Amino acid sequence: MLARGNRITRGTDYRAVVRGGARCAAAHTVTHVVATSEQRPPRFGFIVSKQVGGAVVRNTVRRRLKAICAEVLPEVRVGADVVIRALPASASADFATLRSEVVRCLERKAAA
Questions:
Q1: Which of 74, 85, 62, 79 is nearest to 107 (CA)?
Q2: 72-104 per-position pLDDT tens digit
Q3: What 3-state class would DSSP assign to 25?
Q4: What stretch of H or E contains 32?
Q5: How far is CA 1 from CA 60, 71, 89, 99, 109, in A?
Q6: Does the reported pTM lie above 0.85?
Q7: Percentage with pLDDT > 70 across the chain
Q8: Cβ contacts of residue 101 below 8 Å, gap of 6+?
Q9: What values do phi and psi take at 82, rounded to 5?
């Protein structure tokens, strides 16, 4: 589970990352990363729309993405803001597939 300090909670922060961040697209997710010069832990945000599925499916996808980010947290650079958008295909993706996509994008854009 991600601690509160590791989560993006404000809408303005989400918009700033999505609009101004480096983008990495995959089959099931799109990852946006902004590297800031702030000395704080990296923060993560998740966008899982109704196009992904019903509430149960959306929450399952969100929990999987949160678990993946908690796992790779030590490898992400200090001060980075990451927003992961789940695409509709993520509803049928297994954990390993989502993990490989997110890890690949984070290694490219947000590695320490």
A1: 74
A2: 999 999 999 999 999 999 999 999 999 999 999
A3: strand
A4: strand 29-35
A5: 13, 9, 24, 15, 22
A6: yes
A7: 99
A8: 26, 27, 28, 29
A9: -125, 130
